[in-house]
Amino acid sequence: MTKSPESPGKTAAIIGAGPAGLTAALELLRGSDVTPIVFEMDTQVGGISKTINYRGNRMDLGGHRFFSKSDWVMRWWQDILPVAEIPDRPHASLRIHYQRKSHEFTPTAMRPRSVDSVMLIRRRLSRIYYRRRFFDYPLTLNSKTFRNLGVAEAFRIALSYGRAQLRGRSPETSLEDFFINRFGDRLYRTFFKDYTEKVWGVSCADISSEWGAQRIKGLSISKAVVHAVSGMLRGPGGRSGKNLQTSLIEQFLYPKFGPGQMWEEVANRVRALGGTIHTRHRIVGIDHADAIVRAIQVLDLASNEIRNVSCDYLVSTMPVRDLVAYLKPEDEMISRIAAGLPYRDFMTAGLLLRRMRNGGIPPDNWVYIQDPDVRIGRLQVFNNWSPSLVADPRTIWLGLEYFCREGDDLWSMPDESFLRFAASELEKLGLIDAEDVIGGTIVRVPKAYPAYFGTYGRFDVVREYLDQFSNLYPIGRNGMHRYNNQDHSMLTAKAAVDAMLGKSEKREIWHVNTEDLYHEESTQDAGPQDVVAHP
Question: Cis before residue 255, ω within 30 degrees of 0?
């Protein structure tokens, strides 16, 4: 594994085999003589975008809609997994609405290697479950909403929204300020406050407003209303507009066997082109001098052997907190700030059921659970992401998402106890009978969400320190302590490779997911609930 003097070209050590790390590896192999060596601590690639297999039932951790307003990302994905043909219309052009217009794909021009190596066009449906009732998401002015809320409550929400537009909070420093300024105090307390604090475990008043700005810049009740009205005027075929808020996008691409299929295929291509991927390997040290990383120390978790790996470049997707600890800065203040960067951890309970109480499969991709008397945050219906995620189409395959802290009561609960607890929560909500649960599995994801509180307000000090290293490239979600979605992470990888090859400046990495071109509003399917939840 240590680079020998006669090795041609240069070597890039890449920490992490998630979307960012694997994109960087493949782009280096496609466009340079730099050889990537990828180190992944898990047993499989994909990071939080991996797919978990339970008795032939596949689980998507968090729900990954393959939609981006970056043309580069969309082309990149389709090069790996082409769009599937429609069974009764072979070779027919396919259409998905994004990027200001309707785009066509010709399957014959992107022939997959097999009928399974494809992306499906899927319809988006997300709803809110609150007070044991389903609400449209985004909220729309229709009879169902008025019936669920009651006319009096709807009127109070409208008055509160009007007051917020006339007398907004200034300065807007907290996430609470951000929500109230866009949705009004009444709607904030009805739909956002309890859910957000369930997700993050802290008050909205303690979370930076930057979090909201990064997730749903520009979206408001008025725009949701305009969307609803214009949708009725356009009719069933209408969906266009790069200027649409991404919460309102209603189509996306999805790998037949879940997001992990994409990244497993990318890993195969990396290996085929001469790259190396080592799973079950953890970084335990970094050697550097004169602001240049010289080598890393890697622990083989299978053999318990530590090896020294020299490198010309280091691409890091590991948590910033850990990266700084391994770099050992002389300034203790930098270490303290990095050590104080907070994260939120995540658990998914996969439940396999014979049936639900309504007698059928809910039509949603996922449901936001707003009720404060349960701890579940979101409910995924995997049958609706792709039928191929479910081994037996007669069963219902659900994912119950919980936001927690590593070591807390949820995280520490034994798997069997947690499965019973999760089933009891759905039963309490009136959605299932626990006796209909056939089986299930638990997945724990540490450091799933970099958080915008704690010492995050001084993150610029850490960033300036990291930028001093000429051959160090922090990318991805945890690598930058930024809520990057899958396409954001890929774009940071591209920016890092471009910088290595002298095509752009290194600082361009930090522009991803801040400028309008890459902003959450423009690049991924997000909305008010996504401010506090997932990609």
Answer: no
How far apart (Å, rounded) are the C-alpha atoms in residues 262 and 256? 9
Same domain? 161 vs 190 = yes
Sign of CA dihedral 68, 70, 75, 77: negative
Count Cα atoms within 13 angstroms, Cβ side, for 483: 28
pLDDT at 141: 62
Q: Report whether the peptide linkage leading into residue 171 is cis, meaning its omega lies within 30 degrees of zero.
A: yes
Confidence label for 157 from pLDDT (cuts 50, 70 and 90): confident
216 pLDDT band (50/70/90 cuts)? low
Q: Using one digit for the tens of pLDDT, what is the confidence trace for 460-491?
A: 999 999 999 999 999 999 999 998 899 999 99
Shared domain check, 398 and 379 = yes
Mean pLDDT of the chain: 85
For 384, counting Cβ atoms within 10 Å of its Cβ (0-12 exposed, 13-18 middle, 19+ buried), the class is buried
Distance, first Cα to last Cα, the chain: 35
Residues 437 and 380 grouped into a single domain: yes
Whether 306 and 291 have beta carbons less than 8 Å apart is answered as: no
288 inside domain: yes
Inside any domain, residue 16: yes
pLDDT higher than 70, residue 433? yes
Joined together, the tokens standing for residue 35 give: 């050889």
Are 326 and 461 in a shared domain?
A: yes
Tell me, letter by letter, the H, E, C secondary structure of 392-439. Answer: CCCCEEEEEEEEECCCCHHHHCCHHHHHHHHHHHHHHCCCCCHHHEEE
Domain range spanning residue 209? 131-238
Helix, strand, coil abundance in the chain, percent, nearest 5 = 40, 25, 35
Give Cα separations from 337 to 414, 457, 467 (angstroms).
Answer: 34, 9, 16
- Indicate whether 234 and 160 sit together in one domain: yes
Q: What is the CATH number of the domain that holds 138?
A: 1.10.3110
**Of 384, 418, 450, the domain-final residue:** 450
When divided into structural domains, the chain yields a total of: 3
At 65-102, the pLDDT tens digits run 898 878 899 899 999 999 886 666 655 566 665 545 56
> Between the CA atoms of 156, 160, 165 and 166, what dihedral angle is there, to the nearest 10 degrees?
100
Give the C-alpha separation, 81 to 102, whole Å. 20
Judgement on whether residues 219 and 199 belong to the same structural domain of the protein: yes
Residue at 469 is within a domain: yes
